[in-house]
Every structure is written in C-alpha cells, then in structure tokens.
Amino acid sequence: MIRLTRRVFPALAASLVFTLSAPTVIAQEPTPGPTWSQEDTVRIVQQVQKKLAGLTNLGVFDWLTFGIHGKTLVLKGFASRPTLKSDAERAVKGIQGIDAVDNQIEVLPYSPMDDRIRAEVYNRIYTQPSLRKYNANQGNLGRAIGPGAGVALAAGGITNSPPMGFHAIHIIVKNGNVTLYGVVLNQMDSSIAGMQANSAPGAFSVDNDLIVQGSASKPKEK
C-alpha cells in the first residue's frame, strides 16, 4: 500500500485540509495493478481529501488518514464514535474510479476514564497561551462545549459532545494511552503540547506524533 496523505495544519488556516506532498508519500509495499493514471490519482486524492475534511462529525478526538492499494482506497485512523467510521466510508465510496473501500478505521472503545483524560489533555493543551492559535475556540473545554459546561460535566459525555471547530492538535485516547497527531508551526509548540499532555492526570502514556510544518518527520517524545 502507498500512503498518500496526512492531515496538516496550513499556516493557521480556518479549517483543516489534507495535502499531498512528496515527504508524506511512503512506499510500504509494492502497489498491485491495475492502478490509476497520474491524472486520475491526483483527482481522486483531492476528492477524498475534500470529502473527509467535510465530515461534520470529525473532531479533535478523531484522526483519519487514507492510502491507495491498487484501485482500492484504504481508510485508516481512529474514530471516537462508530458513526464517524461509517460516515467516512459512505463519503468516499461513490468517488469515480474507486473500485472498493477498505475501511480500517479503528473505533475507540467507550470509556468514561478515557473521556476524563480527553478533557484533561484538551484543557492543558488548548489553554496554553502559545497553543491557543491552534484552536478556533481559544478556550477551555467548558467554553467549547457550551455555557456552564465544566470539566466534570464534559468528562461524562465528551465523546458524544466534543468541542467543535478547527483544532490543529488532535488528541487520541485509548485505554488511558494518549497520542497527539497534527502539524504545528515549530518544535517549541510541539514540545509544549507534549509536556502539557504528560501533565494530565490519569494518562498512562503519551506519544507525541506532532509534525513540525515543513518537516517530513520528527522523533517521538515521551
């Protein structure tokens, strides 16, 4: 499978987009035939990007990527709600040229403990002055969910009522383990986000997979 895309943060744009660039094309195994022409590949990638970015229930606690295997589109990533997995597949399967959709998106288990960790990590990251620019809400979880909704309330149902709007740093929590995905402007912001996530009570581990804009990859931070 050839992995073609990764969600990126486009210079503080107001919405998330997916981009295709040379550093993110990673050959994982030989691509089986038949394949699309270069022109069709570019068209299909752009259409998939647009469809996935337009999902109204794709939020800060989800992370989606996709790749191509022959003429099969492979969806990967993590969904905090089962509806996102099915909605993502439904959004792309009608694109002309795609023969099949292999939906490998992992639905994260429902867990009140994980919800509490999501709330804690979210607030620790997005209330940091240097990181507020990565959040359209520019506030804590209570403000993002609605008036009067504090962390305690959010922890009881944050998966079903996630913060809305643009978030460059995505927070994936599974069985108490946290992974940060997204693209930030500089290494300092990546380090601050990692430190803030590590300070969240209840988190068993934190993997910082944030990428600095313009860099092909970065080492993980614990």
UniProtKB/TrEMBL annotation:
Cleavable signal peptide: 1-27
Keywords, alphabetical: Signal
Domain BON residue range list: 40-109
Domain of life where this protein originates: Bacteria
Protein name: Osmotically-inducible protein OsmY
Organism: Tunturiibacter lichenicola
